[in-house]
Amino acid sequence: MKRALVLCGGGSRGAYEVGAYQALLEAGYTFDIIVGTSIGALNGALIAQGEFEFLKDLWKNMDITQVVNYLPDMSFSLDNIMTNKTKIASFLKSYVKDFGADTTPLQNLVRTKADANKIRENNITYGCVCTSYPSLHGVEITLDEMEEGTFPEYLLATSACFPAFPVQTILGKEYIDGGYYDNTPIQFALRLGAEELVVVDLNYPKIDHPEYEYQPNILTIRPSQDIGIMFNFNNDHLQRIRQIGYLDTLRALQLRKGTYYTFMPNTNKELVKEISTTLALKLQHADIINPSKKVLSIKSKSPFTDAMNNLVKYTNDEDYILALLEKCAKYFNIDSLQEYTIEEMIQILLEPYQTLDTYDIKEYLPTLLSKLTTIKDELSNIDMHYLFGILLHKITNKEEQDLLPLLPFIGDQIACAFFVSTLYTKIRG
To answer: Strands 3-7, 33-37: parallel, antiparallel or unpaired by DSSP?
Structure first.
């Protein structure tokens, strides 16, 4: 069965593909067909040549000067523009002269490293997508269909992100970036005989070809979070999205668990079952409302259980607990670029709450309720750790019904607090 790797275009977001391929390589994946568009075609060419180590080092040390001349690697705030106005002026003069950015560094890199013979020796079918200019017709071309010596020129053509980059001319014909035709060339791979496909998409939150996402012979690897704009070549940013690509792929291959965070696969099933059961009981008992505590605006007979169901739907114990861990971790801004066991994540979540006696609750909840009923966006200004401390104090002291008036405003946070309270009592005792 022929397996294809399909790599999406996306400029600097191509660092994600390097992380994704690293995980595929570690998992033992090999490919008979590699196709790509723009940066996907450039990354794919080096992979097809068997030069992934070079590709990793290239992205490890990447900055804007390896792509274009004169343009400073900076954010375009007014302060930075004024500070770098001489460099920007040089870039603009070059841009007008060349009808696009001066891509000499990229041209030199591609013409130096592109090696068609290595791809042929590796017996890989390689193809890239360009767009003819000015007709904007798509051109899907394989290495075997290219005229001798034109391989580097087609790589430059597929990545000629017009109008930022100049038009590329090959044998008298003009081409621009293949993304104008098909940025994720799945059908190209199918036409080349692929029966199993691994597609690395760089778009977030929507992907290029959702119609193929859940096909049984197609594995789609996609960003779990925003990986930025296509011309951000800040090196710290590139290393971040490379790691996101690596972790997303481990989860896509089911070698790790989670959706946004990454959990090791060997979960403590007994612990998970205990937490899930204890949480359900805690919610059920909280739903037995004292008549004096009822809130007229809340019609539900099981308000706390409903709040939890609105946050995370129960499917099975493990997925339920992992989803709740992720919800809480996002509230606390826990690093998503690491791998965790369930026990490690629980300890991180509980770390701020060594003792709950430090949280002054006397005036906090009435004041919070007053603010939430008058200012819709007040929640964005709240210290989440302190809020959770207050909620945990109430729940662990079985005063959760005092939280009923807050349910319409911070139902998700209260549901998370029930979960963290369960962890607190289960782990801390």
So the answer is: parallel
Residue 197 and residue 18 in contact, taking contact as beta carbons nearer than 8 Å: no
> Alpha-carbon distance 309 to 395, whole Å?
18
Q: What is the pLDDT of residues 149-203, one digit of tens each?
A: 999 999 999 999 988 899 999 999 999 999 999 999 999 999 999 999 999 999 9
Q: Model's pTM, two decimal places?
A: 0.89
| CA distances for 89 relative to 72, 94, 100, 141, angstroms | 11, 9, 14, 38
Cα–Cα distance between 280 and 242 in angstroms, integer? 39
Q: Cα–Cα distance between 218 and 205 in angstroms, integer? A: 19
Residue with tokens 């929507």: 206
**Residue 246 and residue 242: Cα distance in Å, rounded?**
6
